[in-house]
Every structure is written in C-alpha cells, then in structure tokens.
Amino acid sequence: MGKRLVGSGDLKFQHLGEIDRIKELTGGDRINVEAKFKDSCTIQYNGLLWWNTNELPSFSGDTGEHTFERFIILSCDNVIPEEERDSKLREKIYAEREVLVSVAVAYLKQSIERGYTFTESDRTKKNRENYEKRMNSLKYFLKECCEVGIGRTNTAEFKRKYYNWCDKNGLTPERQNSISKKLINDFGISRVKSSNEFYELTIKPNQEEKQA
Asked: pLDDT above 90 covers what percent of the chain?
C-alpha cells in the first residue's frame, strides 16, 4: 500500500490458473489488503507491476486482446562476452546519475502527457504478439489453419488436429472441455449434431503441419 512499483527480481516459471488479481491491479479496481495483525481495508493500486523472468508464465482463463494489452515484454538477451564486460560500469553509471535521472524525468513527463502510456518498439510489440499466440493458441489455429463458416469438421477430428498443431509449435492448448464453449462464445462458431457432432468450419489441407 502506498508503493508505486511492486514485483519480483526473479520470477520462477509456473502455470497460473487465472490472472484475475493482475487484472485488478492493472485495471484500477479496488482490492482487499490486510497487513499482519491489522484490520483489512480496500485500496486502489496506482503503480506498475514489474517482473524479471527467464520464461514467461502461462495462464488460463481470459486470453482476450484486452488482457495482453496490459503486458510490455522487454527482451534482455544482449549478453556481453565476459572479456568485454566493464568492471567499473556501476561506478560510471552512478557518476552520471544526475543526467540519467533528468532524462528519466523528461520521459516520465511525456508519458504522463500521453495518459501514462509508454512508447513501444517493434520488437516489444512482436514479443506481446508471440506471447498472446502462445496463450491463445485456439485463436491462432483458427486464423492460420481453418476456414470458418465453410463446411463441417468432426469435433473429435478438430481437437486432435488442434492438439497436434499446438504440440508441434510449442503452444499451450485449451482444455478439452472448454474448446466448444470458447469456439461458440469467443468466435461464434456453432457446434451442430447429425449422426455425430461437428463444428461449422473446415481445416485447410496440411495446415496443421505448418510451424508457427
């Protein structure tokens, strides 16, 4: 409470069933907090969430674009060879602290003028797109491998090819029992019954073999 930055310097990989609390913290909702041995209260968090991690966590539940718009993913993979590392770098940066702070404040003012939004590089945008693809594999399977509203595909066959496609592309698939619900609610794809159950779509020939 009262802080402007919370997070972790070394977030371990894990699968999160839901990220409702992250959405509450980043969406301006009021949340219940309780310090040890004190009464609870409700607050509105007004700051940033910042994590460092070697691998982004996976999660289920709401994987719409509005969820991923909350993420700014920065790649820190420019590893300096050991023989080229500057052992005095920390001291040099500290010596320039006044300049660095003045530059940071100037950019902060610009961000405030834009309504607390950050500029993003093409690489950062691509990082978010790839993360969404990993978490929202059903959306991308439909986009890349299916013709929606044309023909019919047996539900069992659809799920088999979808799971094979996710496995080959290293993506996280939806749970078996939630696929039909998401197809109907999120994409307007009906499930029909005759002698068997079908989805109103066609899987493009050989497209399930395509690499992401």
From this structure: 36
Please give the domain boundaries of the chain with CATH numbers for all domains.
5-131 (no CATH), 136-209 (1.10.10.10)
Cβ 61 vs Cβ 17: under 8 Å:
yes
Tell me the mean pLDDT in the region 148-153: 91
pLDDT digits (tens, 9 = 90+) for 158-181: 999 999 998 888 887 888 888 998
Query: CB within 8 A of 57, min separation 6: which ones?
Result: 11, 13, 14, 15, 16
pLDDT band of 207, cuts 50, 70, 90? very low
